[in-house]
Amino acid sequence: MNRRLTVLLLLVIIALLLPLTVEASSIIDSGNCGSSASFTLDEEGMLIITGTGMVYANPVPWDPSLVKSVQILDGISSIGNSVFKDCSNLENVILPDSVTWIGMSVFNGCSSLKSIVLPKRLTSIGAGAFSNCSSLTDIVIPESVTELGSDFFGGCTSLSSFSFPSGVTSIPSGFFSRCSSLTEFVIPDNITSIGDRAFSECSNLVDIHIPESITSIGNSAFYYCTSLNSIHIPNSVTSIGSSAFAACSSLSEITIPDSVTRIGYSAFSGCTNLKSIVIPDSVVEYAFIPDNVSVPDQSLTRMFGGCSNLKSVTLPSGLKKIGNQEFDGCSKLTEINIPNSVTSIGEYAFSHCVNLRKMAHLQPGWVTGSAK
Description:
Low-confidence stretches: 17-22, 295-301
Number of strands: 28
Oligomer: single chain
CATH topology of the largest domain: Leucine-rich repeat, LRR (right-handed beta-alpha superhelix)
């Protein structure tokens, strides 16, 4: 009996001393994802890519919903368009320093991705690369990057801060569109232009700093930034695009410098809290309509349409025409000084201006339609 107990005890001791072995997760999918690249996907959702050159596939050979982690090994130089698009459960990404180029929409719709470290030799990232990454809060673009695509962070509703690398000189169109957690932003001095829709629908953006390096503000650049209450435009800006500040319903003051020569169609329409504005004499193209402009909201049709709190406006001395519905809905506007240079006033230009009592310098023959 004692001998049997001794044997059992020895077996237990030996079992405890043996090294533990962990069974590797089973591979559930594998194949090629490029001319010289291949992948494995295990049951834990780990996608490992090896090889050289570009990773690409259309459609991708794996099930995007099964991918939880991505590790690309050294040797891969570029990641093709939409490779990880709609991997909604992807949380972790490891990229090697050999990657220098990331294509369009690569991580578009990766709604569980919170942070990512990008390779230090990366030079270009395509349009929509991180759009609709609704959980993304932390991303650092290396200084090596000189090109960023449009709609880069469109719909990244958790993103609250970002730093541009010094080699990037413009904010591309739609770059921060619908980034609802962005409350303030300082544009760095290396940026010279703000693209179309760059901050459109950033509904919680309260404060933005525009540096003296900026020369143009694009179409719908701040469209529907409903929390933006004031903005300083520096003397370096020469052009303000169509619908640039349309539907900024909290905007109460804005100063336009003498450097501005062009202001686009519907630039301030729907700014329901705007009380006064001076358009400087330097503006020679007023309410111009750029090529291929799409007005985001067809009810916001003219420069000051729907500015229901606007009481005072000064128009440029060289103005030749006041367009259709230009001041439609400016219900608190009591008087306006029309420059002598004006030769025509469009239809319904002052429609619903119920408190308008005085139009200085109004001349017979100016009105082409029902102005009021």
